[in-house]
Amino acid sequence: MILRLLALLLVLLTAPGAHAQGAVDVPQQLRTAHDLVAQSLREYAQGHTEQAFRTARSAYLDHFEYAEPPLRVLNPDLILEMEYRFSDLRNGMRDGQPVAELQRVAGDINDSLRKAEGIVSGTGVLAPTLAATGGFTILFREGLEAALLLAAIFSYLESSRNGRLRRAVWWGGAAALLATVVTWALATYVLSIAPVSRELISAVTSVIAVVILFSLSFFLLQQTDRRRSAEFMRARLGQAVQSGSLLALGLVTFTTIYREGFETVLFYQALAVASGPVLNSMYLGIGLAALALAVTFMLLFRFGRRLPTARLFPALVGVTALFAVAFVGNGVRAFQEAGWIGVTNLYGRLPTLDPNVSALTGLHPTVETLAAQALMVLVYAAGYGYVRWSSQRHSPHVAGRLERH
């Protein structure tokens, strides 16, 4: 608290033009610097080297420098690091370096700007809560699906007293969990050394996550699709059991569970980027989800179908939809930072959110990000309406078939 008061005093006393214009809005200056860095990249990619250099210089001299005084008190090392990075960006433009290299430098600058805004604004309570909720929900949803699939496999094998078959299922599930951990480690490593900007990686990851989340939402809503999936899995199990191959049974279990694990890795990669300074809260949510899944797993295998797991699916659909909308906003924002999409700022016209909250909800004050999220909400509304209409349309036929039987 003392450091923050001292930082505010420094803003009032030492910021350029502070006496004439009043206190500097530090978060606003940082956001403007962030957008000018993205603009300079677009100009450089279009061949306007001199204009790009001037824009990058303006980002530092006309905006970031106004935010330096309080940040020097709170984190002097970060300020020194950012001065070098801004210098690297300008020098790279002057020396004609490849766009990909400058995008990497700009990505480091944007990460530091966000960190600086978090230092000035504080993380508050909402951002850690959102990160923890996201960490919990992703693992719990995917883990619950995996637990239900395992329960269905064991239910199918219930009539068989061959203990080797059941052990093959456990080995297949354990291998799937191990493969999921390896996939997470490999994905983290590959993304860290990929020869493209982190913004572009984040954008592509968000788009893929949105596509999977969108399909999952309506899969969970449509009972017929879930029945078809269960029938397909039982058919594969039947073939494996009839052949007597333990390897075949283990592979069926592995592929069934690993699909959930792969989705989990993808969603966490997107959420980790959004969590930023509150990443520890995401890991807290993961830990709580692991405990909740352990309890659910024991109850599921003890009470089986008597557990009201079906009632969870509507809530999971709602949470899945919220994740998709958030990832859409972050994906568009990442494309903007990579210089692929223009930026139409709405700063000053809309309420300003904490930067960490913006990253976790995807609510960024630009026309492009908000329009993409609004479109996503409309698509979800239309899809939900279609699913309801389709279920009501087919329910009389289903009821008629039941009466005839």
UniProtKB/TrEMBL annotation:
Superkingdom as given in the UniProt entry: Bacteria
GO MF annotations in UniProt: ferrous iron transmembrane transporter activity
Bilayer topology: Multi-pass membrane protein
GO-annotated cellular components: high-affinity iron permease complex
Annotated TM spans: 138-157, 169-194, 200-221, 241-258, 278-300, 312-332, 370-387
One Pfam family recorded for the sequence: FTR1
Cellular compartment(s): Membrane
InterPro entries for the chain: FTR1/Fip1/EfeU
Signal peptide location: 1-20
Keywords from the named record: Membrane, Signal, Transmembrane, Transmembrane helix
Predominant subcellular localization, coarse grouping: membrane
Family listed: Belongs to the oxidase-dependent Fe transporter (OFeT) (TC 9.A.10.1) family.
Protein name: High-affinity iron transporter
Protein species of origin: Deinococcus metalli
Organism phylogeny: Bacteria, Thermotogati, Deinococcota, Deinococci, Deinococcales
